[in-house]
């Protein structure tokens, strides 16, 4: 009896959905990448209950033709590639044709789309991967995808979802990365009816970083720009005294695609090695533009990791770009050291409030100053004697008797001086 079973289409779809869509954040990532590939300049992401209750992604891209809408929810149906040769030089964010099929198989999904030259749009509804409604509809130019009750038919997956606030934070992090990767696109993120942020979409990476990181952090970013050997490194890194305890604020992009790369991370941290403490990491937003044929993005289910044909070349390009910026733009403290033996110069008396008195070189002792006794004014004979004045006079007479006069004070005794 055969022990190997050929799985049905529905089960195969559920398994594939688990590889592509494992939480609401991954669904938002796939939908936003489709919007960017469609040439959108404004993307709105709205979620409820952390994305488990509802995900809505709207864009003003090129939209889809009515005949293409039913094909978009099929597995391995894509407009990005048409042959195996296209995989060698992928220039789009999506290319596998699995996103809409995976999301529709684990949710109630609705698609509204219209091209700019069409008068009417198209509406398509899927429940658990099956198309239940397909008709014309009035809608704005572009595409809107709404997915509700995510993982409603996969209880095991839904049971392992985290709290709504945690899932919402993960979705927010995904939208932030996409906003930094495409500063020419305006992103609006809404969670449970509250607008969290809106990026300007004016093409300025600093403007997007200002919204994502905040004013205090953005004002302490240093611009990085270097192009050599066909590799362009642009973006921003933080000043050496603005660091974090983890790598959560290191954002790296290859041709506009967010990736995780140990090679790029090591290059950045090596450039900061002598400027920041150990176990501390800088803030970095770097986009590396290289020839698509020199990088393979089809090595990870979520396309978060890539392989380079020459890792060393990428490392050196990022390292010298960051190091050159830090050396040129970072203010280094200046220490002024006085010479050990100062040059001979005229000595000046120290400034003092007392008058300057020159030092005398006379070895003879200074004469003892004579004491001047104040004259007490006369008192009337009838007045009673002042006890205080009498005691003061007696004390003065006693001091005069105990202090022997110097020879110079006694008149007529000039012979004693000899």
Q: Can you walk me through this structure?
A:
The chain is α+β, with helices and mostly antiparallel strands. Helix content is 28%, strand content 22%. It has eleven helices and 17 strands. The strands form four sheets. Strands 5-4-3-6-2-1-7-8 form an eight-stranded mixed β-sheet, covered by helices on one side. Strands 9-10-15-12-13 form a five-stranded mixed β-sheet. Strands 11-14 form a two-stranded antiparallel sheet. The longest helix is centred in the last third of the chain and has 19 residues, at 311-329.
Count of beta strands: 17
> Which structural class fits the helix and strand makeup?
alpha+beta
Unreliable stretches (pLDDT < 50, length at least 5) are 381-385, 387-393, 398-418
Q: First CA to last CA: what distance?
A: 148 Å
The largest β sheet comes out as: 8 strands, mixed
> What percentage of residues falls in helices of 4 or more residues?
25-40%
Count of runs of 4 or more consecutive helical residues = 11
Topology order in helix (H) and strand (E) letters: HHEEHHEEEEHHEEHHEEEEEHEEEEHH
Mean of all residue-level pLDDT scores: 81
**Rg on CA atoms, Å:** 43 Å
- β-strand amount: 15-25%
Overall form: globular
Strand order of the largest sheet: 5-4-3-6-2-1-7-8
């Amino acid at each position: 009896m055969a022990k190997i079973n050929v799985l049905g289409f529905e089960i195969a779809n559920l398994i594939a959905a688990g590889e592509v869509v494992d939480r609401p954040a991954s669904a938002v990532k796939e939908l936003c990448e489709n919007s960017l590939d469609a040439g959108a300049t404004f993307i709105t992401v709205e979620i409820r209950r952390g994305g488990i209750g509802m995900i809505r992604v709207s864009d003003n891209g090129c939209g889809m033709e009515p005949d293409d809408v039913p094909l978009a929810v099929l597995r391995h149906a894509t407009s990005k590639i048409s042959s195996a040769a296209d995989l060698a030089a992928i220039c789009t964010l999506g290319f596998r044709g699995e996103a809409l099929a995976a999301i529709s198989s684990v949710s109630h999904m609705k698609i509204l789309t219209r091209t700019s030259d069409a008068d009417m749009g198209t509406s398509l509804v899927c429940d658990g991967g099956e198309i239940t409604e397909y008709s014309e509809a009035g809608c704005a130019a572009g595409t809107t995808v709404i997915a509700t009750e995510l993982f409603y038919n996969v209880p095991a997956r839904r049971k392992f979802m985290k709290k709504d606030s945690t899932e919402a934070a993960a979705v927010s992090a995904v939208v932030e990365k996409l906003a930094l990767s495409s500063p020419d696109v305006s992103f609006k993120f809404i969670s449970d009816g509250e607008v969290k942020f809106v990026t300007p979409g004016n093409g300025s990476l600093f403007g997007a970083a200002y919204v994502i990181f905040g004013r205090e952090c953005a004002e302490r970013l240093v611009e990085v720009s270097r192009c050599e050997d066909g590799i362009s490194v642009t973006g921003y890194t933080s000043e050496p005294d603005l660091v974090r305890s983890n790598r959560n604020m290191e954002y790296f992009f290859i041709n506009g695609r967010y990736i995780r790369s140990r090679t790029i991370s090591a290059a950045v941290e090596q450039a900061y090695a002598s400027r920041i403490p150990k176990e501390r990491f800088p803030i970095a937003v770097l986009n590396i533009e290289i020839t698509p044929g020199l990088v393979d993005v089809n090595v990870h289910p979520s396309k978060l990791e890539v392989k380079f044909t020459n890792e060393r070349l990428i490392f050196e390009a990022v390292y010298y770009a960051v190091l050159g910026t830090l050396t040129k733009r970072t203010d280094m403290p200046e220490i002024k050291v006085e010479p050990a033996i100062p040059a001979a110069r005229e000595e000046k008396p120290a400034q003092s409030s007392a008058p300057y008195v020159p030092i005398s070189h006379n070895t003879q002792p200074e004469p003892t100053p004579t004491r001047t006794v104040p004259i007490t004014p006369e008192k009337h004979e009838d007045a009673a004697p002042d006890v205080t004045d009498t005691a003061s006079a007696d004390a003065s007479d006693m001091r005069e008797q105990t202090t022997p006069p110097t020879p110079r004070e006694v008149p007529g005794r000039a012979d004693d001086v000899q």
